[in-house]
Amino acid sequence: MAELKTFKGGIHPPYNKELASGKAIKRAPVPAEVIIPLSQHIGAPNEPLVKEGDRVELGQVIGSSEAFVSAPVHSSVAGTVKEIADLPNFTGAKVKSVVITPDSSQPEFAKKPGKDLDSLSAEEIRGIAKEAGLVGMGGAAFPTHVKLTPPADKPVDTVIINACECEPFLTCDHRLMLERTEDLIAGAKLLKAAVGAQKVIFGVEANKMDAADALRAKASGLPDVEVEILEVKYPEGAEKMLIFALTGRKVPPGKLPSEVGCLVQNVGTAVALFEAAAWGKPLYERVLTVTGPGVREPGNLLCAIGTPISALIEACGGLVGNPTKLIMGGPMTGWAQSDTSASVVKGTSGVVVLTADVVDLGEESECVRCGKCIEACPMFLSPNYIVQATRRAQWDKAEMWGALDCFECGCCSFSCPAYIPHVSYVRKAKAEIAALKKK
Ligand code: SF4
Ligand code: SF4
What we know:
The protein has about 450 residues and is an alpha/beta fold. It has helices spanning about 120-130, 145, 170-180, 180-195, 210-220, 240-245, 265-280, 310-315, 370-375, 385-390, 395-400, 410-415, 420-439; strands spanning about 25, 35, 45-50, 55, 60-65, 75, 80-90, 95-100, 160-165, 200-205, 225-230, 260-265, 285-290, 300-305, 325-330, 335, 350-355.
């Protein structure tokens, strides 16, 4: 068998996908209240368009901004605004949020008759993405209409759908590929039309062959859609790694995929674009995975944006065993939580609960110069030297060793026998370098 496409570096963590990969998507119950942060994206924050006591309808815009790099926020329920306040989001940062008490019975979303998808112009597709509040749903949450507006001198010829889902435990994209195959392909074609590309490539990791087969079956006869199988390796789905694996093109440091004629979008975003264009549906709910050995009945849930983690865990039968670590997102790039109060945002792909028997809580010790972090780094950086420079507050050296090129994948920390949390050091270095540049 020919070698599967991949990138250099990376790691093979235990994937643990079997906990939820066979579980069909089910709708999560509407929680007692939703907490919807008004900024869930990279870019300008939104201003509230509602006030305490207002009635809101499902899908109503409740926050927006005049800025180009921003994405409006919609109500995920029909109900009454209970409060508008600065509340901690999943990172712990305080963000202006709208708390809504849902009505006891919720309406179905009323699909609006859309235009023929094939007739939509690039401009119309970008407008639909903006109005629907679409952002990258793989975690980065960059506004989609901005990504669909590459510089005029950087034509995009290839749209890549990141169908790797390389983070351990998460399976929501896998389920979308199986259960929403046609809508996903339609969304991918809209992305292609929006940037005037010639083709779409789905990059699927080899541990989801059923999804690859489903995509191939539905895409047969479409000359502009390809399905490629990639090696199972983390972080295969990271933009630069995925572009290299599929096209051999290298995105230069500090540059965007459009530099090499590519646009990368996640599975959830492509499905959401289809729903926005075909049904007029804004991004007010998403599919995510609630899983881990600490969850009684792991599964894939379609839930309202703003649903607290506690309600999702309850919907999955509650906690079990000896829960030790709660993570919003995947275990490699997610955010550790101190309690279950944070709410789901557009970029939340999962909630993972780990138990004491699977969490390796080794103590940080001195570097033994084994070089494993260098070997694992897909950006070819020297994470050990970034750590050293950060400990010594030598910010010029941290930059020289590539702190700004690090995309915080965590491969270095995972490989390190000295339990050094490289990513924490890199984040510190980035913040200090940014502060110095600002001065
Ligand atoms: S230095 Fe950054 S990019 Fe390299 S392995 Fe570590 S986290 Fe990933
Ligand atoms: S993996 Fe850890 S111990 Fe080995 S060189 Fe890197 S920082 Fe040092």
